[in-house]
Amino acid sequence: MGREHWKKIWVGSAGNMVEWFDWFVYASFATYFAGAFFPEGNDTAKLMNTAGIFAVGFFMRPVGGWLLGRVGDRKGRKAALTLTVTLMSASALLIAVAPTYAVAGYGGAAVLLVARLLQGLSVGGEYAASATYLTEASAPKHRGFASSFQYVSMTAGQILGLGLQIVLQRTMSAEALHSWGWRVPFIVGALGAAVVFYLRRTMLETEVYEESADAGVASADKGTVKALWAHKREAFLVIALTMGGTVAYYTYTTYLTKYLSNSAGLPKQTATLVSFCALIVFACLQPLAGRLSDRIGRRPLLITFAVGSTLLTVPIMTMLQHAGSFWPALGLSLLALAVVTGYTSINACVKAELFPTGIRALGVALPYAIANALFGGTAEYVALWFKDAGVESGYYWYVAGCAAVSLVVYLTMRETRDIDLGRVGRTAPGEPAAAAAPVPSGKAAVDSAS
């Protein structure tokens, strides 16, 4: 990969890192600020309230996916990426200055809710814009490797959030953290977003987008639901192949620290350190798996993830609950994240490879955001609901079941590694329409998307 490709990957990833730092900081610091916005009561109930607001952010992601996906297809990937980081900066600042329950009653929770709605809008567009940008900006034979940096940057954002949490835990008292210390990461996030805003204003547009005048979608229809509906089979395919991956990912990342603390009984500091160390290794695995997919294809990695997650989720989660100390918890967490890597490392490029350039950002954004709203955003709340009902093991089976559904999709979908991004959705003179792109069509596509 040339210097120009690396520059595009760096700028796209830096913004993604800040976006997800802010997104995940909410989850990782929830145990500290849950009591600030809700009256005294059961600790699990307060966490369920903050998790519910966390989930609301996911339900705004389809709206953000639609709005910002449209911007990305009509105005360019650069325009969409700049807008997403602006929204994220505003939301982080709102949380940083939100009044507590003691000061404004439920007014503070209302500010928290508005901030999460803005975050949902932002991240709903960020995923697709960055996935599309990283996929299009890379050399054709390195798309899997390049797009894997999306989850490297996402994980780096969470690592920075957890790292800051560890520093604050070791330099501040528990009382200070619960009182005002939890605001620090949101201030940091707002400042980081301002820096990335400057970087993204100077970023280069992708050549694939600039040359997309005839790429299968009429100019007036770019980024529209009408154009997406013409590729509805691929859209349903994105929803189905996302289902298992997003539930597993949020289980072993955003929810892991709470699970180790509340269910496994580890001290908060130990639980945070386990997540921090596991995520560093997880980030390093992404480019390796992405590069492997460039050699052997996307489907083998997706199938490996789905089989592993279906069979291993219940025993891993059960053993984690009884881990008891740092090293067993870390080992089991690493095993789980190694399995999830089969999905996270390549899901961005797989989705982007399904759509024509003129509808690619919206095609990835809207169905992915819908899947996340239904499964990823509710994962933590569902887990806490099972715990509150006294049947926590039911959540383990829920995660395994979602992976099993996605396994069926992976087994029936076609390979996308070798397609020409500029030719998806259009037919060269003299070619039959079916040769335009190696994605399922007709009944086969319906079957693979169901």
UniProtKB/TrEMBL annotation:
<dbReference type="InterPro" id="IPR036259">
    <property type="entry name" value="MFS_trans_sf"/>
</dbReference>
<feature type="domain" description="Major facilitator superfamily (MFS) profile">
    <location>
        <begin position="8"/>
        <end position="418"/>
    </location>
</feature>
<keyword id="KW-0813">Transport</keyword>
<feature type="transmembrane region" description="Helical">
    <location>
        <begin position="358"/>
        <end position="375"/>
    </location>
</feature>
<keyword id="KW-1133">Transmembrane helix</keyword>
<protein>
    <submittedName>
        <fullName>MFS transporter</fullName>
    </submittedName>
</protein>
<dbReference type="InterPro" id="IPR005829">
    <property type="entry name" value="Sugar_transporter_CS"/>
</dbReference>
<dbReference type="InterPro" id="IPR051084">
    <property type="entry name" value="H+-coupled_symporters"/>
</dbReference>
<feature type="transmembrane region" description="Helical">
    <location>
        <begin position="272"/>
        <end position="289"/>
    </location>
</feature>
<feature type="transmembrane region" description="Helical">
    <location>
        <begin position="326"/>
        <end position="346"/>
    </location>
</feature>
<feature type="transmembrane region" description="Helical">
    <location>
        <begin position="395"/>
        <end position="413"/>
    </location>
</feature>
<feature type="transmembrane region" description="Helical">
    <location>
        <begin position="301"/>
        <end position="320"/>
    </location>
</feature>
<keyword id="KW-0769">Symport</keyword>
<keyword id="KW-0472">Membrane</keyword>
<feature type="transmembrane region" description="Helical">
    <location>
        <begin position="50"/>
        <end position="68"/>
    </location>
</feature>
<dbReference type="InterPro" id="IPR005828">
    <property type="entry name" value="MFS_sugar_transport-like"/>
</dbReference>
<feature type="transmembrane region" description="Helical">
    <location>
        <begin position="180"/>
        <end position="199"/>
    </location>
</feature>
<feature type="region of interest" description="Disordered">
    <location>
        <begin position="430"/>
        <end position="450"/>
    </location>
</feature>
<feature type="transmembrane region" description="Helical">
    <location>
        <begin position="235"/>
        <end position="252"/>
    </location>
</feature>
<feature type="transmembrane region" description="Helical">
    <location>
        <begin position="20"/>
        <end position="38"/>
    </location>
</feature>
<keyword id="KW-1003">Cell membrane</keyword>
<keyword id="KW-0812">Transmembrane</keyword>
<dbReference type="Pfam" id="PF00083">
    <property type="entry name" value="Sugar_tr"/>
</dbReference>
<feature type="transmembrane region" description="Helical">
    <location>
        <begin position="80"/>
        <end position="102"/>
    </location>
</feature>
<dbReference type="InterPro" id="IPR020846">
    <property type="entry name" value="MFS_dom"/>
</dbReference>
